[in-house]
Amino acid sequence: MATSAPTYRLPFVIGASAAGTIIEWYDFYLYGVLAAFFSKQFFPPGNDTTALLQSLATFGAGFAVRPFGAAVFGRIGDIVGRKFTFLVTITVMGLSTALVGLLPTYAQIGILAPIILVALRLAQGLALGGEYGGAAIYVAEHSSDETRGRNTSWIQTTATLGLLLALVVIFAFRTSMSAEDFASFGWRIPFLLSALLVLLALYIRLRLRETPLFAKLKEQGKASTSPWRDSFGNGRNARLILLALFGATAGQAVVWYQGQFQALFFLGTNLGVRFQDAYLIVGTAIVLATPFFYVFGRLSDRIGRKPVILSGALLAAVAYLPIYTLMTQFAHPQGTLATAGINAGKFVDASGAVTAAQPEILPLVALVWIQVVFVTMVYGPIAAFLVEFFPARIRYTSLSIPYHLGNGWFGGFLPLIAAALLASTGNLYAGLIYPIVVALMTVVIGGLFIRESRHVRIWDEVGGQDASTGADLGLSSRDPQALATD
Questions:
Q1: How far apart are CA 214 and CA 122, in angstroms?
Q2: Are residues 43 and 52 in contact, defined by beta-carbon separation less than 8 angstroms?
């Protein structure tokens, strides 16, 4: 019995999925953008470097639990359905973020402040662990085999657009009020605003139905009743999870965080670029590079996911050191680099006070833009690749685990690892060692052991896609059996 076609079209499916995911990333990265600021709000005073590392560790805590969120919500997504799961995840994320906006500071409640903050970051990480897989799969399972890279590339823009939205909102409030007012209450407004955005996303998502592919899978009795056992207890699938992690998502993750998030941190914290200029540089680069997610997603439909992803990781690894050397030159940091003490890794004057850089905006925009283009290469096709890499009955669980291990652990701890390497060595570029090594590891493992996935026909698991659903979902009615396979 054929599944009845939903009344909405593919652009609505993509828009509804992407809108909610942008808000989730916005929520998640608000803390990251304000990490240096939060070190003085929620952690014991007395040692700025220790407080900053504690703040970055708390930021990383949200990433640490993402694989556990992937396991929990992935199981629900494979048993109950894709739609229900990402309705739950966005609700948890929205509530956690709004509560950060209401949280008293260390000066008000002492040690309870960082404890509660860590708990809320853990809730955010758990929610995000289930969100991404749901959104990526939802779009992929509404797409034809021929257009999966193009369609899922819109979901891949969401993390970058969420970061951009966080930058814009924080910039607007930091520049429209005094530093004292922002420190007192202004920082709370972007977090509280999240509650309104989440309500909007929930309203949109409630209009969605289950994906036609998953609905057919359940009709045919092929859905998994034990996704964890089927994912991790099966030797072949466990091997696929490890290959996806080390041969794709680990390298993709460090390129993403280095090219956008760490570039912002390097400009503002290490080189002394004013936050207004740092936000402008990174925000402009993101706006100019974001269309390339679609470009490389679509290119992966033609030449394959593997060559696009691995080329981006290789180019990034080779280019990082010269790019960051040029960023330092064009930022024109003043004074000398401190290699010890509370200002280690920052430029200071003769008295030891941190100095402000005198940046050349356009060259810095170009250098960050190049890094974001690398991001679009590794990230644009990754959703299509992961969807194709795992069978539908355990796709939510199996896809989410390597994605969030890669992005949550390899990528999420990059700021902390980079800051620790810089503090321990006094070398401004020591933090680049980590993303370069991980990116090269992915190039080697992915190049040697991962097969190209773009010819995988995910609809074959349910007997092929229905021609009757093609008109409403934007799907091709071409017979999947007539398409080339590996």
A1: 30
A2: no
